[in-house]
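Repro case for the chain-ordering regression, as requested:
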Amino acid sequence: MSMKKISKTGFGEFITHIINTDGNVYGVQAKTEAKGDRFAFGPLTSADDLRLDYDVTLSPPKKYLLPPKETLVKYEVGGGYESSICKCKSILIGVHPYDLVAIKQMDELFSQDEYDTHYMTRRRNTTIIACDVAKASPNVFASSMGTATVTDGYDILLTDIGGAYVAHAATEKGEALLTEAAPSAGDATEADIAARKAVQDKNDTGLNQHELKCGPADIPGLLEKGYDSPVWEEKAATCYSCGSCNLTCPTCYCFDVQDDVAWSLKEGARHRAWDGCLLENFANVAGDHNFRKKREARYRHRLYRKGSYIPKKLGGEIACVGCGRCVGACLPDIANPVAVYNQLLEETK
Amino acid sequence: MSKNININVKHMTRIEGHGNIVVNASEGKVEKVEWQVPEAPRFFEAMVRGRKYDDIQTIVSRICGICSISHSLVAIKAVEDAMSIKVSEQTDKLRLLMHFSEQLQSHVLHVGYLVAPDLFGAPSVVPLVGVAPDAVKTIIGVHRVANQMSEILAGRVTHPITVIPGGFSKVPEEAQLRQLQDLLKAQVEPLLAIVDVVLSVAAGLPAFERDTEYVSLKRDGDYTFYHGDIASSDGPVKPVNEWESVANEHVVAQSTAKWAKWNRKSYMAGALARFNNNAEHLSPLGKAVADKFGLVKGCCNPFMNNVAQLAEAAHVVEKSIELIDELLADGVKPEEVKVTPKAGKGYAAVEAPRGILFHHYEFNKDGICQGANLCIPTNQNHANIQLDFEAFVPQFMDQGEDRLRQGLEMLVRAYDPCVSCSTHFLDVQFV
Amino acid sequence: MSKPRVAIFDFACCEGCQLQIVNFEEEILDLIGAVDVVEWREAMSEQSTEYDIAIIEGSITRPEDAEKLKTIRERASILIAIGACATIGGINKLKNNFDLDEVKEYVYGEDAKMPHLNTEMTMAVDEVVKVDYKIHGCPIDNQELAYAIRCLLMGKVPVIPDYPVCVECKSKENVCRWEYGEICIGPITRAGCGAKCPSASFRCFGCRGYIDNPNVDAARDVMEKHGLTAEDLKSKMVLFGSKQGPTI
Amino acid sequence: MCECSCADKKDIYLPALATVSKQELLNDTEMYLHLQLDSGEPLGHAAGQFVEVSVAGLGEAPISVSSSPTQDGFELVVRNVGSVTNAIHNLKAGDKLGIRGPYGSGYGIDELKGKDLVFICGGIGLVPQRSLINYVIDNRGDFGAVTILQGTKDYTQRFFTDELARWDAMDDITMLETIDEAHPEWSGNVGVVTTLIPKIDIDLTQAAILVCGPPIMYKFVLITMKEKNVAKENIFVNLERRMKCGVGKCGHCQMNGQYVCQSGPVYRYSDLDNIPEAI
Ligand SMILES: Cc1cc2nc3c(=O)[nH]c(=O)nc-3n(C[C@H](O)[C@H](O)[C@H](O)COP(=O)(O)OP(=O)(O)OC[C@H]3O[C@@H](n4cnc5c(N)ncnc54)[C@H](O)[C@@H]3O)c2cc1C
Ligand code: SF4
Ligand code: SF4
Ligand code: SF4
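-- result from build under test --
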């Protein structure tokens, strides 16, 4: 598929065209804060608001594929059920490579074994315009996880090469969108492609604020030996069980399901909402029996899910993409997976 | 008609908080007329001691759910006074707008939900849905917009979050203000419809007058709710930091709550007081509403307080629309607030929907509160309600016990008392 | 089945929670379609001694209030406490940190000795009678109350969060108040409010009470990391959390 | 327009309707239901599988299918512990329920064929085991000796007593029962279910031991089995976990790497060796 070059002015037109022709366009925007800008995906209404120079978003883009709360089925009380599947199309602009890896993992997890039509319908109706990272966030360690750059998982990937963007269309959808929305974009030259590669090469090693002292492939092995390591109790001693690490993570997808009815008490809906395995009652059953009662058991579970359990479902791929969000979100500063894995590595030496 | 009257209303309904009415008359001779307040005392002034200056508004907001914005604002102003903090023009305007939202919300709630049933002869707004469904829906609609306005400015409807010493924790987005302005513009008509509904039953407001002193804030060229000095309709004006010598809170043997008096035995605070002191500065729409009811400056019928509230509701809608224009013209930006605590005393007054509200605090050098004195409008009105009662009962006694009781209840409601505000009511066991 | 009869009562409080019921706006018509509101002093003149569900606002500060509450409990088959004053004692419990005689004297001066000024330690509703459900918050979130009432009508136990405010705060994509050095007690406070305060860039001050099992060690650790003391933390926790009982 | 091909995929969260054909309260807390899918199709379950039962407006609960696949329709037994289960207790014949599933792995019937079977059930643990017991009875020739041990806490909580008596009456089944605390009406064994184990005279080491009961029961049964030198490979346990989706997505039932709703609820005990969170 094609590799095009879009000038910065042409880029504005490109985004404006998308905003004007497509319904739901979401892009990364600044959230003005007293202590400097922070970033979040939100409905994009003007090309000027798009900020592809961002470091990391507060929440990952998963909120558009697996919304914080969504309706699964609607029903009549005492009567029948009806699927509620959102078929709206949307475009996400500015997804970073590590978040793309996370989305790819979720795609696999929601489609393997039992096919989750709710997630998958949304996913298939979503066009992703990704962008290479222009600025490392304070906690990113994507380079350690091999997720700093990607070659697929997007429809279009944009790389800022200074005066212009190089746009790579990886799917037909992307190709069509590029032709339609950026008709003036010419093919990228050798030099442009070299400049693009330079950005990606830099990211491959440069997005590494926390350095994992082994390869990601070694993590399952480390965990196999580390189940009874003191690290779990040590770290979890100050865990609030607040689930911030779950909620900000692009690869966490556990959910809760609840019913609610209308005031008529005759009809209602069943929703699913984000949940977190660090929350105290996540594994509670009747009789107040909690299968992971201790903080350290829950804390350990999360890191095993990232580094061992989910990888088994994904053919080995580690379910931590190194975005570093949990590191920043954890108030007692214990959530950093790299710190745990490095400590396990130390212990096994 | 019997000449014996025995009214004993325990825990009067459709007011905020608890109040009792006791009237005894035998053989046409009035023996006892009393307005009592059995609200549980909550001791806010004692409770704020030891708390940091930036927690004060969070605490005192809980004095009253209906006027929580006024309580927060007056507390913040007093804290700022104590620490010599100057706020930006943007902060001032946003606070004003927030304050307007409470006036609108509270007035619509009071006239629409609590007073209107009296005028329609219904026990509550619930059966009113059957009698005047459109009116009820209109009232609900305006009330909702007032609440949305609070939410945008205060962070939520009740107990504001965004007001902090020195400014705002979060300012509204310009797009939100634009939307709000549209909503407000759309409320003018429904508001006038409510006015017309009330007008259609206004004959039910008793013709009762008693020469009264009215106390409110006053500022040049402004129908003020937020800035200015303390003024009496009798003439005197005092700066806000002398409010304790205006309220002159005192305990009287016959009363159950602390009373207030300034130049006479009692005074009235509230919409009618503001109107009587500032009517010339009402917005055109506010004036038009007042005119419809023939409300003119100098009115001393306490029942007209409800009409003054309607005029104010119209006024704040119109003023809010203007204020949003001003804010948008300048652009709304987040401002970082830095406060260095220092020792000192702080005084402030604002107009709560139901009347002038005073706070006073003392802080040590670390900004820890050492003491407080708070005086709420309902407290200031108790003595006046009592004196109104004393004049009202002989005048309307012939109408029989039921109508008299109803009249007294309406009179109390006209003051829009907010008894739960009671920071320091005396608490009496009733027989 | 006939509609359940609901009565709403208030004790020492600001009545802000009842105001949230008024703030249902049009939904109030749905509410009165689903239940019979037989008593609600703030908004109605109707009164009744017969009801199935009693909704209680406010804390108990006087012996006569405790007696009244007990009578209500006897009459109601379901009793719901709404708002911090009722569920945890709320702001009213700040008083309990002082000597009560001193408190009275501070506010009333010489008159403090008058017998009718009797006040006792503030109690949450469940310190006096059994409470079936608690709708937390100062003020309550009226949608949570609406949900809980619908659940009861369906014969279902309402699912009230037992996790901290941070959960909702994170899904709102707020910047943590701790990044500004503010003492936010969201990590130990029960969620359900939708993280309204941090969403308005203001620290959580704990109006919904603590979660079942707050991690005090973590709180201490975090205070240290931010160069603050346990006293600073206590000063914030005391606002709504004075002498707090269990929250569920 | 929707760009996906999902139209032809069924929604895994959409319950099918089933109608209650019979309902009976078995004791204070257990309700028996016989159901038929409205589609007329059989449920198509294997012994040991469960369904997600859905009561509109209240929610869903995972419930084991108690009947044998060889029977018509299907049966559930539900203990009222919370919202959904209470609502199920209020159902009458003719009422509708939502059903998703069957889910889970069930008992591996092929592996059990030809073996002596020992069922050890604690309280409501009888419910899922019963699906296999009745399957075995209907295919009696395929299996060796059958022993059923049933322990109940309290005499009044016993249920399916007629069926227990029927099994007891069968020549080719050994049926032993106990209650935890003595009761005037009860003349049988008193003590926890493990006290029955010494009373069976088959070679336990050659049998398949099938265990289902409350978490605490597993501990004691497994200790006894260890003493009796029963290999872990021959023990099958039926585990309970919190479940929301039943289809391996929501994460609630996960114990270490395993999703109980997919690889369980029945596990060969030796397979749990690497699953410290299992028991
Ligand atoms: C595979 C499997 C098979 C089961 N088979 C049966 C059966 O045949 N008969 C039977 O009576 N019960 C069975 N259960 C247990 C049953 O699912 C729970 O009792 C039921 O989900 C409780 O739902 P509720 O809505 O009535 O209770 P709730 O009101 O939701 O909660 C009551 C208590 O149950 C806990 N709980 C919530 N959801 C679950 C859940 N999914 N699983 C367990 N506990 C939960 C809550 O934490 C709370 O403590 C089975 C459970 C599993 C996992
Ligand atoms: S575990 Fe932490 S660093 Fe890894 S993907 Fe999740 S949030 Fe990002
Ligand atoms: S690890 Fe940190 S972010 Fe995660 S639950 Fe514990 S305290 Fe919260
Ligand atoms: S602001 Fe408060 S509630 Fe939000 S994440 Fe931080 S500590 Fe938690």
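Ordering looks correct now. The pocket of iron/sulfur cluster (ligand 2) is lined by residues A 248-251, 306, 320-326, 337 (CB under 6 Å).
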